[in-house]
Q: What sequence folds into this?
């Protein structure tokens, strides 16, 4: 992997991890479109590190919220009043929202990995993402704020995160749509979507890092150029979160839906031609 490829893929990961256009789809399709013959070992290491980079970005962006949630969660739990404050209650909501995707990831990991080799699957999944966001825009009343997230809303957004295990189904697109279908405002659904991504990204990052250390004996030789991708994804990811939350306050998901329709159609067309 060259320096230019590492930077490009780092930028793509940083932008698309949080924008509702599917980071996994772009990481599959970009090398496919440009015929980049990237070694499997290098690609695996790179994907692990850039995902950790975007994880660091979302933790840093929401560091104050996370600190308040963690402190209040344990404080109220030990006081025997686990749901009495908004921050403590948010902790339980995030746990509930994480459970569906955590279980699905353990049960269907082999199927998910196989899907990452199929541009056709990615293209179809992008069309599904586009349709889902249009449905959410049509149905949602855009009434609820962050404090209006209920346990049933958290569970629904958690179930939507399960579908995002398929490359091409945008995690943020699916979960934000799930919140909007429960009539949350776009920006409220977006904030909860980002917060609920942290536990599942932590678990996935820890597992991938363990596999990387265990299965790649010459890891040190790949790290310098991979570190560049990590830092790029971190910085760009932080900017993407900040931009998207402001964008959602005033704009529709239809713009992202149109992009996913276009990219999905092009993906299927290129696959058919080849």
A:
């Amino acid at each position: 992997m060259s320096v230019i490829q590492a930077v490009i893929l780092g930028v793509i990961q940083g932008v698309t991890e949080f924008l509702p256009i599917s980071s996994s789809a772009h990481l599959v399709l970009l090398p496919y479109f440009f015929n980049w013959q990237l070694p499997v070992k290098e690609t695996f290491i790179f994907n692990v590190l850039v995902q950790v980079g975007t994880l660091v970005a979302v933790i840093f962006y929401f560091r104050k919220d996370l600190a308040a949630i963690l402190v209040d969660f344990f404080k109220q739990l030990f006081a025997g009043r686990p749901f009495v404050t908004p921050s403590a209650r948010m902790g339980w909501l995030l746990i509930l929202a994480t459970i569906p995707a955590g279980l699905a990831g353990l049960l269907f990991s082999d199927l998910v990995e196989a899907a990452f080799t199929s541009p056709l699957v990615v293209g179809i999944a992008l069309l599904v993402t586009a349709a889902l966001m249009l449905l959410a825009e049509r149905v949602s009343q855009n009434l609820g704020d962050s404090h209006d997230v209920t346990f049933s809303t958290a569970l629904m957004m958690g179930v939507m995160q399960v579908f995002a295990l398929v490359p091409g189904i945008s995690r943020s697109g699916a979960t934000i749509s799930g919140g909007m279908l429960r009539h949350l405002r776009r920006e409220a659904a977006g904030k909860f979507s980002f917060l609920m991504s942290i536990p599942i990204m932590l678990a996935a990052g820890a597992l991938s890092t363990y596999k990387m250390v265990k299965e790649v004996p010459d890891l040190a030789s790949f790290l310098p150029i991979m570190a560049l991708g990590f830092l790029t994804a971190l910085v760009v990811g932080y900017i993407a979160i900040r931009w998207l939350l402001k964008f959602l306050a005033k704009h529709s998901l239809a713009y992202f839906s149109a992009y996913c329709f276009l990219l999905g159609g092009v993906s299927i067309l290129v696959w058919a031609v080849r």
Notes: The mean pLDDT is 83. Residues 186-215 form the longest helix (30 residues). Residues 1-271 form one domain. The chain is about 80% helix and 0% strand.
